Amino acid sequence: MSSLLLRGGIVIDTEPQPHVTEYTDILLEDGRIAALGTGLSAPEVLDVTGRLVLPGFVDTHRHTWQAALGATVADGTLADYLARILHGYAPRYRPEDVYIGNLAGALDAASSGTTTLLDWSQLNETPAHTEAAVDGLHASGVRAVYAYPGAPISTTPRTTFAYAASGPEHAGPQVAAEEWRAARELGLPITVHMGGHGRESADRGLAFLRNSGLLGPDITYIHPNYYTDDQLRLIADTGGTASIAPISEAALHIGYPAVGRLQAHGILTSLSSDSVTSGPGDMFSIMRTAYLFERARLAEDFTTRDVLRTATIDGARVLGLAETTGSLRVGKQADLIVVRTDTLAMSALTDPIASLVLSATPADVDTVLVAGEIVKHNGRLRNHDLSALRATLLESARYLAA
Ligand SMILES: [Zn+2]
User: Fold this and answer.
1) Which residue ranges of the chain lie beneath pLDDT 70?
2) Which of 97, 149, 247, 384 has the CB geometry, 3.0–4.6 Å to 279, for a possible disulfide?
3) Which pLDDT value is given to residue 157?
4) 249 CA distance to ligand 1 centroid (A)?
């Protein structure tokens, strides 16, 4: 049995609500959380005294393949994104571009504290593209849900599957009906971009699902910002969940991020990076943006604790992984991050959760573990050579841009 002790951390757990326990040890055994307490021991010890230890973040919608395209849609709208990325770059992707995109994208996420992500895949031109995407996720070491319009392939304990539907707004009712039938035959949850492209298409898409009897708790709505209160009630009553990507929604004009409205309707809501083409993909930036949008609309009851919960355990719930990750409950997989506090910005640490949400940056993420395996340590990726990765990614970027 392999075991590791994280000794003396400032531990932030997320269930039932985010809370802090100082000077706490966490014992990991065989990749799982075995015990929390004081005076625990193990042959191998990681001293995390004075540092924050918390569950890794959960990103419920990331087009991971776009890692080579960072910031290529600056100052653009959704129309620019579609033209440049989906109709410009995407058709040029070879399987090797998909592989390095997914590997680098997943490691970029992991490096900034995201231990679980849903890879919303769009490049499945050939089976080789799909396999390259899954292989890239596997090689990264992160926990992943691979979402594409097809059946599960080459699965590992850290990879599960979802059905990425183009949906009634984009593909029309006939395609959507076929997608829903396929997903439910395969027993896969459905993740779909709906409700973010104006009121008319939000109305039309949701009405189609309702009238066809297709609504259900297996649907995650991405960008559901244009729904009315009545429509949110319908989603809540049928058990649907939500993924909000506040940065891309603001940047590309996909509606005002509806985190607080969704939660007020009792809809389980998570956060996502969406695309690094129009903003950063790290959960610190995403949490802060979501939090500030709520404060900006004078939602005084929305707190730093609420947004941390949304970025962790609620994300795990949305992905159906709440028994696996998202909190520090004994028995769960050891998906943990250690955040430094020895920077000037973090020194005061009056309220560790507030400091984490308001002041910390990806550079403060010292150590990342997924299933007890160290992916990042002392601020460096452990199993991958960063300069080699960058060289391959740059080569891919140059090919794609040529
Ligand atoms: Zn998306």
Assistant:
1) none
2) 247
3) 87
4) 10
CA of 103 to the centre of ligand 1 (A): 18
> Distance between CA 18 and CA 309 in Å, rounded?
6
Give the integer Cα–Cα distance in Å for 220 and 213: 16
DSSP 68: G
Distance 355 CA to ligand 1 centre (A): 29
C-alpha 97 to ligand 1 mean position (Å): 19
| Domains of the chain (ranges, CATH numbers) | 3-54+334-381 (2.30.40.10), 57-318 (3.20.20.140)
- Residue ranges of alpha helices (H) inside 145-282 are 167-171, 173-186, 199-211, 229-237, 246-252, 259-264
Task: Report d(CA 246, CA 254) in Å as an integer.
Answer: 9
Between the alpha carbon of residue 396 and those of residues 88, 89, 98, 127, 138, the distances in Å are: 15, 11, 9, 20, 19
> What is the model's pLDDT at position 229?
98
pLDDT of residue 156: 84
Tell how far the Cα of 245 is from the centroid of ligand 1, in angstroms.
Answer: 8
- List pLDDT tens digits, range 346-371: 999 999 999 999 999 999 999 999 99
> How far away, in angstroms, is 63 Cα from ligand 1 center?
6
